[in-house]
Specification:
Structural class: alpha+beta
Helix content: 25-40%
Largest sheet: 5 strands, antiparallel
Number of domains: 4
Shape: elongated
Number of strands: 22
């Protein structure tokens, strides 16, 4: 479209993923355009461009440089003096761009005209080689695997009492190196007000302005805070129920972006391990079109980015594992993730590792799997009447089913008193137990769960062996007593006198 150098223009943008059309009123901190309703926005509110002053070129160059995904938006330049007359009709046509492509062509802004180096296709350049602004560099950091040798392990151990070896042994490090949170809770030791304290947290790495990499703990909260407003939004009862059950809301909600102070559609998750609410603006949510063997359609990608969970997908991994799982967008994973994984019927016996150790027929294995299953067919927790042989009342059972941490009761294990807490771990598909150390009836800290569990099972085995020995001894004593009784009876039996001839 030929423009008079003195003519004032305005921009209308179209989000190619959501179909949203709006008049450009500014540019967000992430490079994306701020938009108002093209049909109702006032001309005075819009950003105007004079071709002679060249701000249009500056805006487009900045947009293409800063925006995380420039192809998300298409732009159309309209004469400002005719904006109010033609904008409503233009907005309708732009929403159906394919249908009205020929009519819109004179108004469409060719974004390639504003790319500084036309010889380079940005999508073909590895992320690590693209020179971008500070904000872009931060985004690149998130998508680049961290070199573990560049992490400040000395500082981490000093501040949090955990080492690289600890994280490797607990199989948490790999996720963290991809700028994700650890897959489960990790125990930390830190000093607060001069006293050592034990904490539980999911962990991720923090990139500091000085270039150092340290630890960012996401400490477990005592209970969910779903009744309080979150980033300017109050959850409905239905949304709270969804968060507790599925860990996500099945639609986007309008949240205030802390960076910009403006409301925008966002994906909301609930971290059941830490009781945290997590969110990400819809515009920043990224979903790759393939996960394992599943090729996601554009509709499915949009559903995931809107918080919808794709149910019961048959998954085949590269190493040949075969199971069913749900696919869900997880903020803490920076993308789509598999959840509620369950083996298919033909593979429902035991894992490959267990098969090497235990040689049983399929029927026996399936029975064993049922005995130790803590979930129903849909992956939800089953109701438990007791835990560690401590009865659980109905209220505690309901809290457990709702994903809350529950105080089970007190138990003495190898001479030490503990207060037991448990919570359903959806990723592990089983309860996770905490052992509070009791002194004078008060919890003074938490013990290493693995060590306490080992002590508990040692105690059970010892009691079982003692019972077996006592039973065996009793059986032996009873047998000996019966033999002695038989022998005594034989010895005490009177001899028969011989009968003489009858007179």
């Amino acid at each position: 479209m030929e423009n008079n150098p003195d003519e004032t223009n305005v921009l209308i943008a179209r989000n190619n993923e959501t179909g949203q059309v709006g008049a450009v009123v500014g540019q967000g901190s992430d490079g994306t355009p701020k938009m108002a309703d093209a049909k109702t926005a006032k001309l005075s509110d819009l950003v105007k461009f004079s071709k002679g002053q060249n701000p249009l070129e500056a805006f487009m160059s900045n947009f293409l440089r800063q925006a995380k995904n420039p192809s998300t938006f298409g732009f159309f330049s309209l004469p400002a003096d005719r904006y109010e007359a033609i904008a409503p009709a233009m907005a309708d046509m732009i929403q159906k761009e394919d249908e009205y492509a020929e009519m819109l062509s004179p108004y469409k802004v060719k974004t390639e005209d504003y790319v500084q180096d036309k010889s380079v296709n940005q999508s073909d350049v590895p992320t690590s080689e693209v020179k971008e602004s500070t904000e872009d560099s931060e985004e690149n950091i998130k998508n680049t695997k961290i070199d573990p040798d560049k992490v400040d392990w000395v500082r981490i151990e000093k501040e949090w009492g955990i080492t690289r070896k600890d994280l490797e042994e607990q199989k948490q490090l790999e996720d963290m190196l991809y700028n994700r949170r650890s897959s489960s809770l990790v125990k930390l030791t830190t000093t607060i007000d001069g006293e050592k304290q034990e904490l539980e947290a999911r962990l991720s790495f923090k990139h500091n302005p000085d270039g150092s990499i340290t630890l960012s703990p996401h400490i477990k909260k005592t209970e969910p805070q779903l009744d309080k407003p979150y980033n300017g939004y109050t959850f409905t009862e239905e949304e709270k129920a969804e968060l507790l059950k599925d860990g996500t809301i099945s639609h986007t909600v309008e949240l205030v972006n802390p960076k910009t102070g403006e409301k925008e559609p966002s994906v909301v998750n609930f971290d059941k391990l830490t009781n945290e609410i997590l969110s990400i603006p819809f515009s920043e949510a990224r979903v790759y079109p393939k996960i394992c063997n599943i090729d996601l359609s554009k509709k499915e990608i949009m559903q995931l980015k809107n918080g919808v969970t794709l149910r019961d997908r048959e998954i085949i991994t590269k190493d040949g594992r075969h199971f069913k799982a749900d696919i869900q967008y997880r903020v803490d994973r920076n993308g789509a993730a598999l959840i509620n994984m369950s083996p298919l019927k033909e593979n429902q016996s035991v894992s490959q590792d267990k098969e090497k150790k235990v040689e049983q027929d399929d029927t026996t294995n399936q029975k064993k799997e049922k005995v130790y299953s803590f979930t129903d067919a849909e992956g939800n927790p089953k109701r438990l009447g007791q835990w560690y042989h401590i009865p659980i009342d109905e209220q505690k059972q309901n809290d457990y089913l709702a994903g809350k941490e529950v105080e089970v009761g007190d138990k003495k294990i190898e001479g030490q008193d503990y207060r037991l807490y448990f919570q359903f771990n959806k990723e592990e598909k089983m309860p996770e137990t905490k052992f509070g150390i009791l002194k004078n009836g008060e919890v003074v800290g938490f013990a290493d769960a693995r060590k306490v569990q080992e002590a508990y099972y040692r105690e059970l085995r010892a009691a079982k062996e003692a019972t077996q020995k006592a039973t065996a001894k009793l059986d032996t004593g009873q047998t000996e007593q019966k033999n002695q009784q038989r022998q005594s009876a034989s010895q005490e039996q009177p001899k028969k006198k011989s009968q003489g001839p009858r007179l």
